[in-house]
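Name: DUF4431 domain-containing protein
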Amino acid sequence: MKSRLPYIAALLLAQVPTAFAGPDSCMKYEPKTVAVIGKLHRETFPGRPNFESVANGDEAETGFYLSLESPICTVGGSGADQVSFESVRKIQLVLNEKQYAFLRPKLGTKVILQGQLFSAHTGHHHADVLMRVSN
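Structure predicted for DUF4431 domain-containing protein:
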C-alpha cells in the first residue's frame, strides 16, 4: 500500500492560503496562517521560580518544537509579539491536549504544520518564534 502522506499533505495545503518556510520570503505573524516543515521534537527548559536549573528546583517546562528544514525570516509589526527575525531554525509549538496527543507518536519525524506565528515575549517562551498550531 502506497503512503498517503504526500496526497494528504497536498490536499491539506491546498485548502488554506499558506506561505511555506523558505529562504526567499519572510513569514508574517498572526492573523496570517502559514505552513512550516520540520522535524518534531521535545525539549525541557527550567521554569519557575528562577528559570535557571531544573536540577536546582525550578519547574520543568517541557514542550514540542519544530526544527525547520530551511530557516525562515519573519516580518515584524508593532506589538511585542511581532519582532523581526532573520534566520529562525526552531519554532516552539503552542498546542492543546488533543494536539499533543496527536503529535506525540510523530516525535522524531518530519511533519507539516499550519498555524499562526508570534514572537517570544515571556519567560515561558523558549524559542524566538512560536506557532499556535491550527491543524
